[in-house]
Amino acid sequence: MGQEIDLMANYPRSKRNVDARGQEKTEADRAIARQFGEAFFDGERSTGYGGFHYNERFWTPVIPTFQEHFGLDSNSSVLDVGCAKGFMLYDMQRLIPGIQLAGVDVSEYAIQHAKEEVKDLVAVGDARKLPYEDNSFDVVISVTTLHNLEVDELAVALQEVERVARKGSFITLDAYRNDEEKARMEAWNLTAKTMMHVDEWKAFFKKVGYTGDYYWFIP
Questions:
Q1: What is the CATH number of the domain that holds 145?
Q2: Is residue 116 part of a domain?
Q3: Packing angle of the helix pair 198-208, 151-164 (nearest 10 deg)
Q4: Number of domains in the chain
Q5: pLDDT interval class at 1 (50, 70, 90)
Q6: Do 142 and 80 meet the contact criterion of CB atoms below 8 Å apart?
Q7: Residue 26 — very low, low, confident or very high, per pLDDT cuts 50/70/90?
Q8: In this structure, is residue 198 part of a structural domain?
């Protein structure tokens, strides 16, 4: 199994009022958000981002971390599973010229509204059945995406990451380390269907054969 490492350490964090969010979100809001359509990306805050727009301050400081960790250069290839509108791919393309990139996302809306510079790199796709041959990419990255699947489906998705990655992978997932963090996670969660204690996640990785690197999203 890979290592627990925070490759997202330089991603800017916004201050979160978790308690208020937990009181505001309804099951109807969650049902709408899980459709991953316009309401999730560019609708009201109650059902998602409240406007999902590119800002270079988010991924620009993270790409060098990925680059150093995986030794990425112009000869490398990377797949982003859950690429949304392709913002990470755009910054990776900009900061590592010549790198081979691709992205998939279950959201037709996100792909249709992807950043123009990477529209030819992204496609609608299912993490449970990635549309690529074995060992197609040096590295597969999936940030706060796979936990949106039910646990059995998530196991399949992790095996798909293993199948298409030649050298390594990195994923982040909703997790908690104690009861307080679990309560905060349950209040914050809008789309995730699978949340576990970090130790349960590690045991799960071993069970399903995931050998890549990983870290957690904990609000």
A1: 3.40.50.150
A2: yes
A3: 60
A4: 1
A5: confident
A6: yes
A7: confident
A8: yes
C-alpha–C-alpha distance, residues 18 and 94, integer Å: 34
The Cβ of residue 137 has, within 10 Å, a number of other Cβ atoms equal to 24
Location of structure tokens 């609000």: 219
Give one DSSP letter per residue of 43-88, joined into a string.
S-GGGS-SS----HHHHTTTHHHHHHHHT--TT-EEEEET-TTSHH
Residues 190 and 144: beta-carbon distance below 8 Å: no
**For the chain, what's the residue count?**
219
- Please check whether residue 101 lies inside any domain of the structure: yes
Strands 165-176 and 196-197 come out as parallel
From CA 99, how far away is CA 72, in angstroms rounded?
8
CA within 13 Å, CB half, 116: 0
What global pTM score does this model have?
A: 0.94
Q: Is the residue at 5 inside a domain?
A: no
Helix axes 87-95, 63-70, angle to 10 degrees: 70
**Parent domain of 195:** 18-217
Q: How many helices (H) and strands (E) does the chain have?
A: 10, 7
- What pLDDT does 19 receive? 54
DSSP annotation string for 207-219:
HHT--SEEEEE--
